[in-house]
Write a structure and sequence with these properties.
The protein is α+β, with helices and mostly antiparallel strands and 300 residues long. Among the domains are: 20-111, GIY-YIG endonuclease; 234-292, Winged helix-like DNA-binding domain superfamily/Winged helix DNA-binding domain (Arc Repressor Mutant, subunit A, Orthogonal Bundle). The protein has 12 helices and 7 strands.
Length: 300
């Protein structure tokens, strides 16, 4: 059972580090103008942060459209008064939040701050809807500040939760995934990203042992095209390179073709297999349609 106390002293709040404080507050426009006396009722479980948010001129998402327009129109510090109407304390955040939101509703009705004020609804503190531009800006700011990075404690908690679940794929699911990926050609850009992401990574002895045990006894057949690519890289087999204008040039080997087109040998091999153009506009093929190399051919 949650015990919420009204009007708990600051001494109690300071002594109990786990005790949460929720407030319902009122900001009233005191500037001599047509809207003088209009007020805005809100609630918060972090008064200090809420005040900072109010004083931040760059904050375009405080409360709702009416209060936001008023914030932009009047001086944030000189033209407004601020008073805490009620405060509540408790140890359970959700229960405390429900309580202060209910109190907020009552004060919005009492001061008629929807009709004669800057509230837009009885749940105004959480009624604001961000525009796509504001949402994108908030995401960019959080990512730049590292706000999306989990703490070590959170990572440990997530890991523990995931490990406690049976996350192994069924054989049927594995078969579906395998079928979906068969024949899929990974772009050169994606290959470069994967290469950069894995650069410098070292497998642990346990991982190496597990990988080795998994592969032992399994045949690894190589397709005719794959063997041709391997042989072409090993021996000097002429490669034809065609640009986007249809101009064709023959190079003595895959390595020579790769150097001439500023690509890696592995990339040329992939384009030989797929028949696609590279990002820099070249297509590769075996001269005279060579697909297989006689095993007796010697290395250069």
């Amino acid at each position: 059972m949650v015990r919420l106390t009204a009007g708990a002293s600051d001494d109690i709040f300071m002594a109990d580090k786990k005790l949460l404080r929720g407030i319902v507050y009122k900001r009233t426009l005191i500037k001599d103008c047509a809207e003088k006396g209009f007020s805005y009722i809100g609630y918060s479980l972090n008064e200090t942060q809420r005040i900072k948010s109010w004083n931040n001129h760059g904050n375009k998402s405080y409360g709702g459209k009416k209060i936001q327009e008023a914030r932009e129109k009047y001086d944030l510090k000189k033209d407004w008064s601020y008073v805490v109407l009620e405060e509540r304390y408790g140890h359970e955040r959700d229960a405390l939040k429900r309580l202060v939101k209910q109190i907020e509703k009552e004060y919005i009705k009492k001061f008629d701050s929807i009709k004669h004020g800057f509230n837009e609804s009885e749940n105004d503190s959480s009624n604001y809807v961000h525009t796509p531009e504001q949402s994108a800006k908030m995401v960019a700011t959080r990512m730049a500040n590292g706000s999306y990075a989990h703490t070590d404690a959170t990572k440990a908690k997530i890991s523990k939760t995931l490990l406690s679940k049976n996350l192994h794929q069924s054989e049927e699911a594995k078969a579906r995934i395998s079928a979906a990926n068969k024949g899929r050609i990974v772009s050169e850009e994606t290959r470069q990203k994967l290469s950069m992401a894995n650069k410098g990574k070292v497998m642990s002895p346990e991982a190496r042992a597990k990988s080795s045990a998994t592969k032992k006894g399994k045949p690894h057949p190589i397709s005719a095209q794959g063997q041709a690519n391997i042989d072409a890289a090993r021996y000097k087999i002429p490669i034809e390179v065609t640009d986007l204008q249809g101009n064709t040039k023959v190079y003595e080997s895959m390595k020579a073709a790769a150097e001439a087109t500023n690509l890696k040998v592995g990339s040329v091999s992939n384009f030989l297999k797929s028949g696609n153009y590279s990002k820099n506009g070249y297509r590769f093929s075996y001269k005279d349609g060579i697909k297989n190399l006689p095993k007796q051919q010697q290395k250069p």
